[in-house]
Write a structure and sequence with these properties.
heterodimer, A: 1078 residues, mainly alpha, 49 helices, B: 325 residues, mainly beta, Methylamine Dehydrogenase, Chain H, four-stranded antiparallel β-sheet, 28 strands, globular
């Protein structure tokens, strides 16, 4: 950047000499400028050799008495700064003289500690020069600057610089002054090379600055707390200077080391008075004063707008805590608070720096075990904890967040010492009270109570419940970050604290009062998570991790408490009995006019209700929190939790079917956690693998329905999610269910029926029947007739008629034996001649259930009758392969079923009819006689009767029960006739009844159903159908194939188009499609 | 005293057949175990921590197992089946093999009885080929020691217990017979010492408390009787208690001699005070069929000493009762 520089000192000398001489002779601005420009042409090495020579004219200008123009001095300063920046000062005299000359050049002539009223530019130039001087001084001479003899001069310089920093308006000057101060302290932070300061030299520096400490700290604190508009750079520099000075003077190392007393003061005369001996009493007094100043600094910088200032505060705290841990004992508290408060600073750099510092402190603290430090911390913690309950009530969220962060910070720094702190009952008491206070849930929300789990069937697909969706609402804060910090606090407590102590304490709170129960559970959950290090960010590791066995026993004891009857079997929904008055209440509420008395009453009732709603809300949350806890514990224990499943899975599953949406969702989330912890791929697998544990609880609880009303529900969930391998275990419990049903059929029948229904549904799936579709009875095989001849037809007809009569005689054996012997069906005996072959267990179960169905078919409750009919149908399906077992059972339940078919509520009839159809399908002709005698006449009669009504009915008729009965019967009748192999008169009566529904006046659905009946019947007896249809309406006339034969005459012939025409034509074309020519 | 009887602590399911015999093994070598022998010839080894079968052993060709026990460790099992065989099993390191077997020749239901005479040496009393015969053999050498047959017509051997005074001394046997009598045998002298006619029906079961020199027996009758051995080695009736329903399958005195448990044909388990007089304490209802077997845990922690009952309904119920001292 410059032209070729002159390396040779001789040439350089020759080169510079003229301008030097000129300057000495005529000190003008232009001459200085000329010299300065020439300097640039000389290399650093040459300049070093010519240093004194070059500096001489410059200094000469300064020393010349008389007023000088500022521009000249500024020029001199710039030139001098150039020299100093590029060379080194090797002689002490030069340093000393230059130092004082520079200071003198801007100080007030009357007071060397105050600046002269000169221009900013000059001040800046001088300061720059001074800075350059301090940087250029050799290490072996610079320390002489701090010797006691130099104290006055040094003091004046420092005062001057401080005055500049404090009172100068111009930011640049302030900064330059502060930079000089830092350089003077040999703690300059610029990128240039600096003198290395050894241990002894630090002492020298420390001694020197001790004398100026009060002034420095006072002035700088003014700067720091000065106008915000001064810019952050000034504040930052001032803070740095402050912390470096204090850090140097109050350094523990220096204060603790006993050194030989420096030179006796008398030798130094008055200067001796300036010397400060850093005795312990001195340091104590100083620390006290510093503490005050420090607090002022912290208070005005901890919330400074500029992040660099906050960062500097962190550095300051770090500096002092590192170096002056002992000497500034009193300051540790405020310093820590400042640090910890910055842990969650909004600026990332500050946060990172802060946590790094805290981490270092925590680690240092652990290694040295500084008791004083710990005492201070635990004192701080205690103070904070004591005020926590009050603060949590009174302050706003922002402040709470800050306080809790500070609290967390203390815990982190205390690290393993937390255990010691917590062992003080007073501490623990306060901390826990604070937590209980702040974690109080808001249970006013009515929606929580009203949200019901609509699904009757629990869906266990894992992906559905990955996150706990519902937010908790707290009484004393709304900010989610607060909850998250609280969680961290609890986890940190758990991580460092004595687990037994903490768990005992919070379990006591949990048991003590329902007021604290939810909060304690929240805390306990996090403590356990923290104990294993889950979700804990810490600075130091604890001394020893918790061992798995202890953890297991602690967790088991907590779970035991959680799932004990009093804490688990809480009502989460208003009872049925309560809901009725509620409706009434709402109605009266709507009434616009009600007298005062009534209103008061209403108010009272409402209040009573409100409390219960809140109670329910609270119950719901308690269960949810406990469920969350179980999930957490599982994740913490991992696969070791498998053994805890023995006691835990049942309660969780029970809650999965809870009426409250929130509880049920929460339980499903917990199930997911359990799967994850115990390495099951899905809740389904979890249930199947642990069905033995579940069944154990189910069977025990079935016996105590008043305490455990949900056992059937759990069983139902199990049935719907397992496979046939469960059956051996299930049989046992099914027996229990049946026994329980027998014992308490009046109260719990609906529940038990629901369970058995689920079981039957499951069994139908587990054991698919192969001949579920019973093949059509032999008689109805429809063979395609292509070459049709009348003769052949008649021959066949005769033969078939004879054949049919023969078989018919056999079939219509009046001996209506209960068990039709069918020796071919009997399986081979394995166990000996006199033992019946053992039935497959599902058959046994189905039989047992069917037995109960017989009783319940005539239950007074409509709901139960409907349910039982469904069950009966499934039983029949399961038993369909074992006719030996099925038929006797069908025989036994027939009369009860018959009553349902003909004498029951119209709601029941369709269902009963469906059962009858299923029976017809599986039992076939076993039922023919009964149906034709006992059922068909009534059914067809009622169909015929209803046909008249439905023909006239309007469109709303389709919504009536009567319509549904008609439809169900018509839809089922066709297949039933086929399965039962009905003939002749029965068929006729069916045809007769159904013909009415071919009318186009009937509702379309009934017409369709009736059409389907005919289509079915055509398979059984196409001729009868054809005949019946033609009687109604005959579109064609028939020519006899032979003149000897009588002409065919049908009632429908020649009739005009009527209401039946359309459907009859449809059916006839269907028949002719089947048998094209007649 | 009017507390309702407790529910079982746990039910072990899945044996698939009636449970004839139970044996606890709760040493410190591993999880507490319960061995059960069932009607289909399987021996289940239940881990009482996980409450699941660890192993199922089949070695009696599907004949009913009537008795199981362990020898010096949990790894040596001995089982007696209705196939007239007694098998010794090696269960170490996950094995499950029959290492030794011998034929007793007995077609009856009488269970064997085992006595450790010195460390590593046992005497096994087992029913012999002749129906009234008790045989004693040394174990594990299987050297026959003696064969004891009553002179009188006592009928079939129903139940046997070999024991030794707590202070040591020679092994003795109490045996119950078909005619309802209980006979005390001196094994070394091979002769009956005393005979006591307790029932008119066969003795179905008995147990003997060698500390108190007192035994209890049950039959198909309604009465549980206890009897003592006096200084002259004579069996003396001591006490009796009448039940509501007849039929006792098994009786067990707990190791500490405080309570006696009975397995009843009426599906109930009963607990009696044993120390002095026979006093009914509790009726434990759970099973839905005859209770066939009952046993007490030998857990070192008295609070974890369970009572187990095996029933014809294929379940084993575990009860935590009278163990909180």
């Amino acid at each position: 950047m410059h032209m070729e520089q002159i390396d040779d000192p001789k040439i350089a000398f020759a080169f510079l000499r003229p301008s030097c001489v000129l300057l000495t002779q005529e000190p003008t601005v232009s001459n200085v400028k000329a010299l300065r420009e020439n300097l640039h042409s000389v290399s650093d090495g040459a300049l070093q050799q010519l240093q004194d020579y070059v500096l001489f004219p410059l200094r000469f200008v300064l020393k010349t008495p008389g007023s000088k123009r500022e521009g000249l001095i500024q020029g001199v300063m710039e030139a001098m700064a150039y020299v100093l920046e590029n060379t080194c000062i090797r002689s002490w005299e030069s340093l000393r003289d230059l130092f004082s000359e520079l200071c003198l050049s801007i100080c007030s002539p009357t007071d060397p500690g105050q600046p002269a009223p000169v221009s900013e530019e000059l001040k800046t130039a001088v300061l720059r020069c001074l800075d350059a001087l301090l940087h250029s001084a050799y290490g072996d001479i610079i320390f002489q600057l701090y010797e006691p003899t130099m104290l006055p001069g040094l003091g004046a310089a420092i005062s001057l610089l401080l005055a500049l920093a404090e009172h100068e308006r111009a930011r640049g000057v302030q900064e330059a002054a502060l930079k000089c101060l830092l350089s003077l302290l040999l703690q300059c932070d610029c990128p240039k090379e600096h003198v290395a300061v050894g241990q002894d030299q630090r002492y020298v520096l420390g001694d020197a600055f001790a004398s100026f400490l009060p002034g420095i700290t006072r002035a700088l604190s003014h700067v720091i707390s000065g106008d915000v508009r001064q810019g952050h750079a000034v504040t930052v520099k001032a803070m740095r200077m402050w912390s470096r000075t204090v850090g140097l003077v109050m350094e523990d190392d220096q204060l603790q080391t006993k050194r030989a007393k420096p030179k006796v003061a008398s030798e130094l005369g008055r200067i001796g008075e300036l010397i400060v001996h850093r005795t312990s009493s001195w340091s104590k007094a100083t620390a006290k004063r510093l503490n005050l100043v420090l607090q002022k600094i912290i208070s005005c910088t901890s919330a400074h707008r500029h992040w660099r200032v906050r960062l500097e505060l962190v550095n300051l705290s770090d500096q002092l805590l590192t170096k002056c841990n002992n000497s500034l004992g009193e300051c540790i508290g405020p310093l820590m608070e400042a640090l910890v408060g910055a842990v969650n600073d909004e600026d990332l750099t500050v946060r990172e720096r802060c946590s790094l510092v805290l981490k270092e402190i925590a680690q240092r603290n652990q290694t040295t075990g500084g008791q004083a430090f710990i005492d201070v911390l635990s004192e701080n913690l205690h103070t904070l904890a004591s005020s926590l309950p009050r603060l949590m009530r009174t302050t706003d969220d922002q402040r709470k967040l800050f306080l809790l962060n500070v609290f967390l910070g203390y815990l982190k720094i205390l690290g393993p010492q937390v255990e010691v702190v917590l062992s003080s009952a007073a501490h623990l008491q306060r901390i826990s009270r604070g937590l209980m206070q702040v974690l109080e849930l808001d249970v006013m929300d009515v929606r929580i109570v009203e949200e019901r789990s609509a699904v009757t069937h629990v869906d266990l697909r894992p992906e559905l419940y990955n996150t706990r969706s519902q937010r908790k609402h707290f009484l004393y804060f709304t900010d989610d970050r607060i909850f998250s910090v609280l969680g961290k606090i609890c986890r940190t407590l758990g991580y460092y604290g004595n687990l037994y102590l903490l768990v005992d304490h919070f379990m006591d709170l949990y048991k003590e009062s329902s007021v604290y129960r939810k909060q304690s559970a929240l805390v306990l959950n996090d403590i356990i998570a923290g104990a294993t290090g889950t979700g804990v960010e810490v600075f130091t590791d604890r001394h020893s991790g918790i061992n798995q066995e202890d953890l297991m026993s602690v967790i088991q004891s907590i779970i035991e408490e959680y799932i004990s009857v009093n804490n688990w079997q809480l009502s989460t929904v208003t009872d049925e009995s309560n809901s009725e008055p509620k409706d009434k209440l709402n109605q009266s509420h709507v009434l616009p006019v009600c007298n005062n008395l009534e209103r008061d009453k209403l108010q009272l009732v409402l209040e009573a209700k409100c409390t219960t709603v809140h109670q329910l809300n609270s119950n719901i949350w308690q269960i949810c929190i406990q469920l969350e806890g179980i999930g957490t514990f599982a994740l913490v224990l991992g696969s070791d939790f498998r053994s805890v499943l023995m006691t835990t899975l049942y309660p969780v599953l029970e809650k999965a079917g809870d009426d409250s949406l929130l509880v049920s969702q929460s339980a499903l989330c917990t199930l997911n956690d359990l799967c994850q912890a115990c390495a099951y791929s899905s809740p389904k697998e979890l249930i199947i693998a642990n069905s033995d544990y579940l069944l154990n609880d189910v069977s025990l609880n079935l016996g105590r329905p008043s305490v455990h009303p949900h056992a059937p529900r759990v069983l139902a969930v199990m049935f719907s999610h397992s496979d046939a391998s469960l059956l051996p275990l299930v049989i046992d419990v099914v027996q229990d269910v049946l026994v329980a049903l027998d014992l308490s059929y009046d109260q719990r029948a609906p529940l038990f029926c629901a369970v058995l229904h689920t079981l039957l549904k499951a069994m139908v799936q587990w054991f698919p029947t192969h001949n579920g579709q019973k093949k059509l009875p032999a008689g109805v095989s429809v063979e395609p007739q292509t070459n049709f001849s009348v003769k052949q037809f008649l021959v066949d007809y005769c033969r078939q008629k004879e054949l049919a009569e023969g078989i018919g005689a056999d079939e219509e054996d009046p001996n209506d034996s209960d068990i039709p012997p069918s020796p071919s069906c009997r399986e081979e005996n394995i166990d000996g001649p006199d033992m019946k072959p053992e039935l497959p267990s599902h058959v046994t179960i189905a039989k047992d259930i069917m037995e109960r169905c017989i009783h319940f078919l005539s239950d007074p409750s409509l709901r139960i009758r409907l349910k039982v009919l469904d069950m009966l149908e499934l039983c029949v399906c399961v038993l369909s392969e074992k006719q030996d077992e099925l038929l006797p059972m069908v025989h036994r339940c027939w009369s009860a079923l018959l009553q349902r078919l003909i004498n029951d509520d119209p709601l029941v009839i369709p269902r009963a009819f469906r059962v009858l159809c299923t029976l017809g399908k599986t039992c076939g002709d076993f039922l023919r006689k009964r149906v034709s005698k006992e059922v068909l006449p009534k059914l067809t009669a009622s169909l015929a009767k209803q046909a008249r009504i439905s023909a006239k009915a309007g469109p709303t008729y389709a919504h009536t029960v009567a319509f549904k009965v008609q439809l169900a019967v018509l839809e089922g009748l066709g297949p039933l006739c086929v399965w039962l192999d009905l003939v002749d008169s029965d068929l006729d009566s069916v045809l007769e009844a159904c013909l009415l529904y071919l009318s186009c006046r009937q509702p379309a659905k009934l017409q369709d159903a009736s059409l389907s009946v005919f289509q079915n019947l055509m398979e059984v007896d196409p001729d009868a159908c054809w005949f019946a249809l033609n009687e109604l309406y005959c579109p064609a006339s028939f020519e006899p194939p032979h003149p000897d034969l009588q002409p065919v005459e049908l009632c429908g012939q020649g009739q005009p188009r009527n209401e039946y025409t359309d459907n009859v034509l449809k059916l006839l074309s269907f028949i002719s499609g089947e048998s094209p020519s007649i | 005293m009017s507390l309702p009887p407790p529910d079982p602590q746990y039910i072990l399911r899945g044996s698939g057949a009636q449970i004839n015999t139970l044996h606890f093994r709760c040493d410190n070598e591993g999880p507490p175990l319960l061995f059960s022998g069932s009607g289909n010839g399987a021996v289940h080894v239940w881990n009482l921590n996980t409450r699941r079968p660890e192993k199922v052993l089949e070695g009696h060709s599907s004949s009913s197992i009537i008795w199981v026990s362990t020898l010096n460790s949990r790894e040596t099992l001995i089982s007696q089946g209705r196939d007239m065989r007694v098998c010794v099993w090696d269960l170490g390191e996950g094995r499950g093999d029959v290492t030794e077997a011998f034929v007793t020749g007995s077609v009856g239901f009488c269970q064997c009885s085992l006595l450790e005479t010195s460390p590593g040496r046992w005497l096994l009393a087992y029913p012999g080929e002749q129906m009234e015969e008790v045989r004693v053999a040394e174990f594990p050498s299987l050297i026959p020691v003696c064969s004891l047959k009553p002179d009188s017509k006592a009928g079939m051997l129903m139940s046997v217990k070999i024991w030794q005074k707590d202070s040591g001394g020679c092994p003795e046997i109490v045996a119950g017979y078909e005619d309802g009598s209980v006979v005390l045998w001196d094994v070394t002298q091979r002769r009956p010492v005393s005979c006591l006619k307790v029932y008119s029906e066969p003795v179905m079961c008995l147990d003997f408390d060698s500390g108190r020199l007192k035994g209890a027996s049950g039959s198909s009758e309604k009465v549980i009787s206890s009897w003592t051995i006096d200084e002259k080695q004579n069996l003396q009736m001591h006490d009796s208690v009448e039940l509501v329903n007849p039929g006792i399958s098994q009786l067990r005195v707990r190791d500490d001699g405080k309570i006696l448990a009975s397995a009843g044909w009426d599906n109930n388990l009963r607990v009696f005070a044993w120390k002095k007089k026979l006093r009914p304490l509790a009726v434990l209802k759970h099973h839905t069929d005859m209770v066939l077997s009952v046993g007490f845990s030998d857990h070192h922690d008295p609070r974890q000493r369970l009572l187990a009952a095996g029933s014809k309904d294929q379940r084993i119920s575990l009860w935590s009762i009278y163990n909180q001292s």
